[in-house]
Design brief:
Elements lengths: L7 H5 L10 H10 L3 H11 L3 H8 L3 H9 L6 H21 L2 H8 L18 H15 L5
Helix pairs in contact: 2-6, 3-4, 6-7, 6-8
């Protein structure tokens, strides 16, 4: 699927917010927490294994399994991180054209990331900001 077909915010929130929702709705969803099943759906849509997505939102697969077993929603912090991953993935996929090329870029060492893979910094706020900034630069004609 490509960015036109998939609303990644809708995936990670079970449809409670979309790319067209307002910020307050996103804050409310993050505060209420997203479900582990929604995290798994996002991982599937992005072709990421569960461990990569868990690490990207700042947790482990074991913790996700515990949340799932207890039928609990994720904490506000983890939920907010998941929303950010969905949003940044939407931006990346829109620029690169599809999930495959987005993942290739995320997994390719890049001078903008001190010759590390962009995915290696996606678990931090500043790393996600840098990824967004680099993608915006690419949109305006700067090279990767």
């Amino acid at each position: 699927m490509n960015a036109v077909e998939t609303d990644y915010l809708g995936v990670v929130t079970d449809g409670r917010v979309t790319i067209h929702s307002n910020t307050i709705d996103e804050i409310n969803v993050a505060t209420q927490g997203v479900t582990v099943s929604a995290i798994r759906s996002l991982a599937k849509e992005l072709n990421w294994d569960a461990n990569i997505l868990a690490t990207s939102i700042g947790t482990t697969t074991r913790t996700l399994e515990r949340y799932s077993k207890d039928r609990k929603r994720l904490s506000a912090k983890l939920s907010e991180n998941a929303l950010e991953i969905a949003r940044i993935s939407s931006q990346g996929i829109a620029y690169f054209g599809d999930v495959k090329r987005w993942n290739e870029w995320l997994n390719t060492p890049n001078i903008q990331f001190a010759n590390q893979e962009p995915k290696s910094v996606i678990h931090t706020i500043r790393g996600r900001e840098l990824i967004k900034r680099v993608i915006m630069g690419l949109e305006y004609g700067f090279t990767a």
